[in-house]
Amino acid sequence: MGLRKKILQNRKNHRLIGSGLVALMLLFTGFFYLIQRGRDLPGALLTNRVLLFVLWYVNVLLILVVLFVLLRNMVKLLVERRHRVLGSTFKFKLVATYVGLSLIPVLVLFAIATELLRGSMDRWFNSPVAPVLERGNAVAQGLYDSIEKTNLRDAGRVQREIQDLDLQDPRQRPALTRRMQSLLGELDLDLVAVYEGREFVNGIFNSQSGIPRLPDPDRSFLEAAAQEGHATAVQTPPGTRGSLLLAGVAAPNRPGIVVVVGSLLDPVLTAQREKLVQDYQAYRQLVVQKDDLRASHLLLFLMVTMVILLASSWTGLYLARRVTLPIQALAEGTRRISGGDLSHRVDVVADDELGVLVDSFNRMTEELESNKEQLERNNLELTASNQRLADERALIAAVLENVAAGVVSIDSQGRIFTCNGAALNMLRQREQDVVGRPFEEAWGDPDRKRLAAAVREVGRGGHGSKEIHLTLGGEWKTFELKVTALRDAAGAIQGGVVVIEDLTELIKAQQLAAWNEAARRIAHEIKNPLTPIRLSAERLLRKHQQGDPGLGRAIEEGVEIIVREVVTLQGMVDEFSRYARMPRPHPAPVDLSRLVGETVHLYRNLKAGVEVEGDVDAGLTAVWIDGEQIRRALINLLDNAVEATEAPGQVRIAAHPVNGHLEIQVADTGRGIPAESKEKLFLPYYSTKGRGTGLGLAIVHRIVADHQGAIRVEDNAPRGTVFTVELPIG
Amino acid sequence: MRAKLALLGFFLFASQAVADARISPIKIELDGGRVLASFTLRDAFSPRFSERVDSGLPTSILYRFVLDRDRKRWWDQQLREGTLEVVAMYDAVARAYTVHYKLDDKLIESRTIRDRKSLEEAMTRVEQLPIFSVAGLPREWRLLIKVEAELGSRTILSLIPVTINTDWKDSPKFRAPGIP
């Protein structure tokens, strides 16, 4: 039977139990009424054998029903326990408790009631009334026995007195009557009669005693007297007050003749005696029926006990089922849900706490099902998302593998997480030597130590770039590092990405382009003096050919022009020669403050209205640089700045350590530099002034680069230009 | 179901107790088509039985008679059954016993008996009681009469009522005088 069906049946049982309880109440009321009425019922009814057997079989039936109900349920529970049905243990305990709680008190009550009844009945029959009744009965019977004995003696005398008379002879009847009359008075009798067989022969009675007429003795009495020789009887003739005690004696020599005498007992005495005998008999009957009486009461007790037991057991089982069915349903639900069936619902309608529990369980199941569906949806989305991410990762990996720039990712512990092929090629390393190792260890060899230092340095600021030069495999390489920190949502640094760009070829190309430009500019610069030289030479030749008298003058002027232009060419060649012969820097501890001070001193008051100032951090007293080269770079920068600044203006040179490196700024309030010129500013022979060799800033760039530093140009605020030189300290 | 029937049968069986009384050999006489049975119930007046009689309660001895056809190789076939109930009641005032005889629940005789000995004889001695008619039964059938006496009831464990019965007594086998 399904659980739902059981539960529905249980609800029907609810009404059934209610009806049963009402019926039980009515039954008990009926029992109570019967017991009350039973006091008025005759004892014979209560001890009736049929009633006893009926009660017994009703009890047997009830016992069987109770046993059937209990055993059936117990066997079912044991079978459920053996098959490990969910909730069976709890149900078993609950049913055992309920049944035990109802069974034990009822049985104890029955045992106590039984013992009380037995004790009461025993005390009842052992009361002192019994001896009194027995003695009273003995006295009454003794009185009768005494009278009967006297009567028998008197009857014998009458029989002897009349034995000589022929009773069949009518002529002797008067004599018989006289003799009987005489004996009636003499013996103080109330009746004297003679019978032959059952036939009356003659008789007289004492009319003053209260006997209205001669009574007819009982036939059995006459027969007994005739057969046995004598007999006694007690009669109450109609119309007579009191009992008539008869005694009959048979005549020994005349068969069939019976002489009967009688004494009328006093009515009061008779009544007292009868009452005494009747009471004694009633008592004896009670004693005889004692067992039956006790049995009938016990059976009634047992019947009521069995009915209570049946009702309480049934109610206990019903209550146990009412509790265990929802729990079993919940246990079954839990099993189904743990098995993955989240659509299962516990279908129990209950108003009590179990109902609340079932509702909560169902709500929890609904939420579980909803959450599971949501999880499945999320899982699908996550799977798709992961697939997308994997695709993107593959794409990024492919891109990273194919980009020309080297890309290295570093985790928060400083370990290299990924390193693409371009980076490995640039740095001439194998992946297994790099990935998974701290970058300072992976790049700790002397060739790459600068790379590690640059990454560390740039990485401090969160992001930045730096150009470095490494000698790898004997080749001079220039790299640009771009370091970007990776941060989480809270802003904490989780690692970084290093993008390495190999600028070697680019620089070569730039240098080539620069040399091309230089060649063009040189050609142009050379071409410019050559033209006056050629024109002067041609003029001299023409003057000579013409024989011009102003030839001397022309020679003087022409030679002057040619010499001047040659000087210009000479200066140009010297400058180029110096740029080309610029030596490698030789760093040594330099007091930067002093160096800057001396340099600034050269330009102070050089241009009216242009103020030149220096501001150097006091701690920069021993900076490892090539002092002369740096001085030359600063002079070039200050030279340009002062020239570009109109009065009133200001040129300021400042030197401070910033983020582990030395930063020197030369700022002016001059006319500034157009954006399109900034890119070409450090190329050799590029000039915005329209004069000079255009090698000044190229020399500055060369000096800074030789010091492993960098230089950049920016607009000054509100106007002017700022050149920033960054040099490593030490 | 069988278990319940067995249990019920046990209780029914247990509701009988064997009496100390016993039935003397049964004498069978045929009077035409009638069977006259004579026997005596011995030791019926136990102290308990006597006490009940003397208390004035109606006290009965119920004789059950069964007429069976005797079969050698099979169970006997029951042909007829009948009862004789002898009920005695003592009148302590009149100091006499009244005895009623009921054959198959029909009153056939009443007697007044004045002494105990006569009462015992009247209740336990059955003389030529015309209990069955065998007229019309095949002559070749062997017949027998079985008699059992029930002497009231008592209780076991103060609770379970049981009737007091004698064992069944079989009469000598006889044949019906009827159809040859």
Structural features:
heterodimer; A: 730 residues; alpha+beta; Beta-Lactamase; five-stranded antiparallel β-sheet; 20 helices; 17 strands; B: 180 residues; nine-stranded mixed β-sheet; 53% strand; globular
* Biggest sheet features of chain B: 9 strands, mixed
C-alpha Rg of chain A (nearest Å): 75 Å
Unreliable stretches of chain B (pLDDT < 50, length at least 5) are 1-10
Anisotropy-based shape of chain B: globular
Average per-residue pLDDT of chain A, rounded, comes to 83
Helix and strand layout, with pairings?
The complex is a heterodimer of chains A (730) and B (180).
Chain A: H1 3-38, H2 43-46, H3 49-82, H4 88-125, H5 129-161, H6 173-186, E1 191-196, E2 199-205, H7 219-228, E3 230-235, E4 244-250, E5 257-264, H8 267-288, H9 290-338, H10 353-402, E6 406-411, E7 416-419, H11 421-427, H12 431-434, H13 439-442, H14 449-460, E8 463-472, E9 475-487, E10 493-502, H15 504-546, H16 551-580, E11 588-590, H17 592-603, E12 610-616, E13 623-625, H18 627-644, E14 649-658, E15 661-668, H19 675-678, H20 696-706, E16 710-715, E17 721-728
Parallel strand pairs in A: 12-14
Antiparallel strand pairs in A: 1-2, 1-5, 3-4, 4-5, 6-7, 6-10, 8-9, 9-10, 11-13, 14-15, 15-17, 16-17
Chain B: H1 2-14, E1 16-18, E2 22-23, E3 27-31, E4 34-42, H2 47-54, E5 59-70, E6 77-91, E7 96-103, E8 106-113, H3 116-124, E9 125-133, E10 142-156, E11 160-165, E12 169-170, E13 174-175
Parallel strand pairs in B: 1-11
Antiparallel strand pairs in B: 2-4, 3-4, 4-9, 5-6, 5-10, 6-7, 7-8, 10-11, 10-12, 10-13
